[in-house]
Amino acid sequence: MKEKNLYIISILLLVINPLFSQIQNDKESNLETLPDSLVFQNYIDSISKYVYRDSRKIEDYVSLCQTMITSGKELSNANRLDFVLNKTYYQYTLDNTLKVVEIIETNRSMLELKGISYKQKKNFKYLDGYTSMVLGNLEDAQLSFYQLLDESLDQKDSSTMFQSLYSLGEIYLNQKEYETAEKYFLDAYEVIKKTTRRSSSRVHVYLELVNLYLAKKDFVKAQNYNEIGIHLSDSLMMLDFKFDFSLNQVNILIKRNKIIAARGAYNRALTFAKKMENVSYEIKCKEAKILLLRAEKNYNSALENAEELIAKEKKGQKILPTLLRYYKSAHELADKNQNHDKAYEYLLQFNTIKDSLALEEQLQKTEYAKVKFGVEQKEKENTILTAQILQKKTQNQLLYSLAFFSFLLIILLFGNVIQRRSYNRKLEKDVKNRTIELEKSNVQLSKSNEELSQFSHILSHDLKEPLRSIVGFSSLAKKEVGENKHLAEYLSFINRSGKQLNKLINDVAIFHQVGNEYRNDNKFVDVNEMLNSILESIRTVLMEKNARVKFSNLPTIYANRSLIFIVFKNLIENGIKYNNSNTPIIHIKYELKDTKHSFTFEDNGIGIAAEYHDKVFGMFKRLNDRSTYEGSGLGLNIVKKIMDKVNGNIGILTSEEGRGSVFEVTFVLDENEENHFYKMDISSSN
Q1: Residue 586 confidence (pLDDT)
Q2: Whole-model pTM above 0.85?
């Protein structure tokens, strides 16, 4: 993922400065006569310009901006935040993730300053989510991107919409969920197609689609998008991207077994790299040459080139992920060349670096937590210091007043003044002691919450990878067992149990999220549109079960869309899951009861006996065998917990075994909605 940082973050710069003139000259003169803010913005614009043409020129402009900041030039809050965003991007080009974390956490409070625009806030939030993605916190990143996507739909903000869709595609591509990644990339492409100033954004999408189709081994599509990308990046003078597409062309032709054509594509890329005199281009050419020699079965020359890259990297920056790739390539080539001693040596080096990278990743996460905690503690200390200064000032004013009155009534009030000063000292000491105790308690509570969140992350993330392997390999093994019915039955049981455990992990993660991350983020929600989104997300289940969901003319309500989405989706899925009918039917109706919304979900499922109506909402409560009906036993408990959070209620109106069920969801009408429904009532009565 680190190798794609440059491409992803440069998407952000399209939004930071979409009106940048393509004909700007980096040597333009007379900057001395311009106001500081315009000079500063000119430097930022130059950063945006050269990221698409020649990234080597970025450093000079970043240094110039930093000099203006430290020299105390008069710059607006918006100017300063622009620099923060660009400085964050620059650190990503240096692959310095921890510095990015420090910049983001230190400048987060800038979002509340006067003069900061809506678009700048969105860009900062996007960078925050992207940093979570780079650090491996994919759940936080996904949540951030989904929230940005939701907000961009409301605001009709095509730039943020494109960023969110593109980044979600990146996440799923790295998780090898190719179908989902393809959907998000194509959706991002459709968004950018409708704008007039985003030709360069298409280059990013084309590059990712090429990577996607290479991973899917759909080399024809990869070839088509790569050729489009070469022509577009060339017309826009985006040299870095043009070179990457050129090397992709070599790889694609090798994959399509067109070795002679691949050799021609490689020679053109090498000529371009030498003309540009760019060292990184030449190194990438050397990597492509190794692939080409390997395809030509010239393993000895390929190994010599791989060894040259290893030697050069060990003398240079010693970037571990790069060395890891080189050692892996050298091991495979030595093995192909029947040089088993070298192959073993390179394999040892590969495993050593792999272990180092795992340790480095863990240390990076630890450093991230340390940086974030340090910034929070500094802000807390500043707040406490400010409060103490104000308190001291207030106390001094009080003492001056007492001294004035003491001068007038020196004999009568002398004893009273002494007593009051003594009382103030004692009170100040007691307050100070209580504050220290409270701070200790807060630190302990924060530590406990952090440990609980880490456990939840391990449960919902780290367990998933081995679980996917169990389910996937049991499915593959089942296809290979032939006519051994007993072994096939055992593998089916493993597969089914693995899927059940995966469902349980997902539901536990949702349960934890609902309990700890709820925010009162209410807005007007079109229930009809939300239900259509739910049906789209479970379309496969609906087709497999031949199920139907009926609803019409449902209202627009004021609620937390994310939470209500989970409630409605769980009730619909339960109505389909616990249903023996050939055509499961769920009928959703609405009624306004005094000051409450009432939604009913009627199904033709297996029903629930009367003695279990209250028990089904408990944690891990199941009334049926797991082998007959899948589920974790948390679904209705999650729904119940959400309704408690939003001041609502869920219950069973009617249900009998074999005759279906009717669930009712109610919550209080918000004051923002009262005028809306009052006008509806007057209109209907007329």
Answers
A1: 95
A2: no
